[in-house]
Amino acid sequence: PNNKQLGAGIVDGRNVWKSEESAAKLLSRIRKVVGNDKNVVVSPSCSLQFIPYDLSLEKDLPSGVREKLAFAVQKLDVLVKLCSTSSNNCLNATDYEWVGEDNVSGADDISKITKVGEVIVTSEMFSRSEAFNVRREKQVSVPRFPTTTIGSFPQTPEL
């Protein structure tokens, strides 16, 4: 539907190997199926937090290995490259603007970023309206070491 977006995790974020060619082929196949005019948002297949940060920081890799690797920064570069050749809905730095003072630092930084034309992020969004002990009383109470019977019954045809 025209009012929906398809999130396509086209860059493999589960390993450190280059995937630019396979990502480009996958994006091409997706566009053939859903059409070029549809809302396709490209992204990594998963979070990049568990792969190394930047290949340029690795100084002692053999050159034959280096050409086959892509760390988080390089995988994001692939997404940017694919977006620059794509027709729509790639995250663009111009989608965000900095508001407020130029050199703000500290915990309030996040409250200074806003999505253009949408919700303004404020520091109040990151604080709770009630203290923890009040919220804790409203939560479900379970024993200190809860157990279940799932999997402890014999798995026989009679059951």
Morphology call: extended
- The strand line-up of the biggest sheet is 1-2
Q: What's the alpha carbon Rg, rounded to whole Å?
A: 23 Å
Low-confidence stretches: 91-113
Number of strands: 4
Helix content: 10-25%
What is the first-to-last residue Cα distance? 45 Å
Oligomeric composition of the shown chains: single chain
Number of helices: 4
Structural class: alpha+beta
What is the percentage of strand-forming residues? 5-15%
* Chain-averaged pLDDT: 75
Order of helices and strands: EHEHHEEH
Biggest β-sheet description = 2 strands, parallel
Helices, strands, pairings?
Elements: E1 6-11, H1 20-34, E2 40-44, H2 63-66, H3 72-84, E3 96-98, E4 113-115, H4 132-138
Walk me through the structure.
There is one protein chain. The chain has helices at residues 20-34, 63-66, 72-84, 132-138, and strands at 6-11, 40-44, 96-98, 113-115. The longest helix has 15 residues, at 20-34. Strand 1, helix 1 and strand 2 form a beta-alpha-beta unit. It has 159 residues and is an alpha+beta fold. A two-stranded parallel ribbon has the order 1-2. The two termini are 45 Å apart. It is 25% helix and 11% strand.
Write out key terms for the chains shown.
4 strands, 4 helices, 159 residues, two-stranded parallel ribbon, two-stranded antiparallel ribbon, alpha+beta, single chain
Offer a quick outline of the entry:
It is built from 4 helices and 4 strands.
